[in-house]
Specification:
The chain has 208 residues and is of the alpha/beta class. The chain is built from eight helices and five strands; from the N terminus they run βαβααβααβααβα.
Length: 208
């Protein structure tokens, strides 16, 4: 399905700078007159934010990977219905910090080969894919240090350790090769301002 708006997602390992860069991009596009919705996953709607608290807090073994896939898909469906699609129908630009690619990685490969299950649920329940995805590639060790330095309650996946972050990075890069027309890889091991400019140029090209 196509809508008058545009859907931009950001992906990457923990601590790669996604949240910072989504805000910088949203502010710059707003200054240019675009109508922007800035959102996140899991979350972005009332019901999805409640699920966020369930999946990002607590012990690493709180949920099985299969249960997490169902929870993330439920949150995404609510997010799509209540936030993303209404904005796209109105012609707005939606910028989202994480989307289905994160589930393909974190739940699809973190504790077994469950990518097929993730994709099946996505096709069944999620009626829209991003127009462009910005993948911020980051050294896993640096990213994990950044993420842990935030010292928030939402560190369940960071607590899986460096090995998971390394596998996630490899998985994201493989995903970028699989969806090369949608996913743009940018080097996150750079100055924030320089990185923001690179992202802006990639996005403007996609919007033209």
């Amino acid at each position: 399905m196509t809508y008058p708006g545009r859907f931009i997602t950001f992906e990457g390992i923990d601590g790669s700078g996604k949240s910072t860069q989504t805000k910088l991009l949203a502010a710059r596009l707003q200054d240019e007159g675009y109508d922007i919705i800035l959102t996140r996953e899991p979350g972005g709607s009332e019901g999805a934010e409640e699920i966020r608290d369930l999946v990002l807090q607590g012990a690493t073994d709180r949920w099985s990977a299969e249960t997490e896939i169902l929870l993330f898909t439920a949150a995404r469906r609510d997010h799509i219905e209540r936030t993303i699609l209404p904005a796209l129908i109105q012609g707005k630009i939606v910028i989202c910090d994480r989307f289905a690619d994160s589930t393909r990685m974190y739940q699809g490969i973190s504790r077994g080969d469950l990518r097929t299950l993730v994709d099946q649920l996505h096709r069944l329940m999620i009626p829209y894919d991003p127009n462009i995805t910005i993948l911020i590639d980051m050294d896993p060790e640096i990213g994990l240090k950044r993420a842990k330095a935030r010292a928030t309650a939402e560190e369940r996946f960071e607590d899986f350790g460096l090995d998971l972050q390394q596998r996630m990075r490899s998985g994201f890069l493989e995903l970028a090769r699989e969806f090369e027309t949608r996913i743009a890889v940018v080097d996150g091991n750079r100055d924030i301002v320089e990185l923001a400019e690179t992202i802006y140029q990639r996005v403007k090209l996609a919007l033209s």
